[in-house]
Known about the structure:
By secondary structure, this protein is α/β, with parallel strands linked by helices.
Amino acid sequence: xxxxxxxxxxxxxxxxWRADPVTGSVAVPIYQTTSYQFRxxxxxxxxxxxxxxxxxxxxxxxPTNDVLEKRVAALEGGVAALAxxxxxxxxxxxxxxxxxxxxxxxxSTDIYGGTWNLFANTFRDQGIEVRxxxxxxxENFRRAxxxxxxxxxxxxxxxxxxxxxxxxxxxxxGRPLGIPLIVDNTAAPILTRPFDHGAAxxxxxxxxxLGGHGTSIGGLVVDGGNFDWAAHKERxxxxxxxxxxxxxxVWTEAVKPLGPIAYIIKARVTLLRDLGAALxxxxxxxxxxxIETLPLRIARHSENANAVAAFLAKxxxxxxxxxxxxxxxxxxxxxxxxxxxxxxxxxxxxxxxGREAGRRFIDGLKLHYHVANIGDARSLAIHPATTTHSQxxxxxxxxxxxTEGYVRLSxxxxxxxxxxxxxxxxxxxxxxx
Length: 433
Ligand code: PLP
């Protein structure tokens, strides 16, 4: 059940579903099936010709995944979504749906390291050039644009810098040029709805806050339905020229009777069909369980992270706290413009005593888990200089906002006293020298 007037707390529990019409099941069933029986040959023919919507094969669609897609689309204020096997698959397909060999996109420099690798190396090998620009000045996106630029790409609240991205400013540069802004909103669900600020596509790693339980890798691409692809035929050829892989369909025309969903339908029936990064319905089910409590969790993550940032700011072992509550000037203005109701659960800080203190701090933690993940209900910590960023040269680490003593926390929803007590004893172990 998706009533557009529902608030996020209600959509999180009800979006895309109202009791199974056959069994009455209130919980969304796990449709653990590969394929679906066609009623007759005419039915099968219509499904393949996209004349009728319906299930064909779970690599491309599944009723459990369908509820997840509808729920996340509703939460975001978008028109439709595509669930995928991971956040990485979501980032990759969101771009590949528009850019082909010889094309380029312009991306913020401040993105997740895995996305950076995908863009800087794998896409380059596939002939898609990614031009990285500093998002501090939105005009950098315009400067890097040429006639083969197919999309802009950014993260709402990228770590480790935790500086909110100027969504409206960059979306407004792209729109008259026919260039959509794709926003990875993994770190800030509920707190920001990028479509409200002009983004055209939203990407998620549902592995993080959407799931929240740390059980399931997954991702989603959400179509805002708010971008006029047909008005920019030259700029967006993948959606405006005949697709030989689908009997010459021109997606903006073929999908028109179904609504403004050409982008997401094409991604499903060509890229997901061909590349096969399908989400298991079991993982979709688990992710739905997580989303039921997402609004409550994200509020508590934010509250606890504010308290952790304030605590760290007073500690002699800590030279700098990286968190929107501690920012000033433009960064703070952007955080307050784009994040409503909290700053999410990520906090960075620098230890005065550098690299070895970082190790001592992490090894001293008793409650926090030491993992390469964010967004769990549990509190998590990592020392990027010895893990996620260890392959980078010192200058590259610095450009990414990572110093030798940098520690990243993903503050969980435990009682704040227990979180702070654990940090306190690990800071004592880290020392000031
Ligand atoms: N986007 C962001 C912001 C992330 O933090 C991550 C993973 O850490 C991803 C995308 C990739 O998601 P996944 O690990 O689900 O493939």
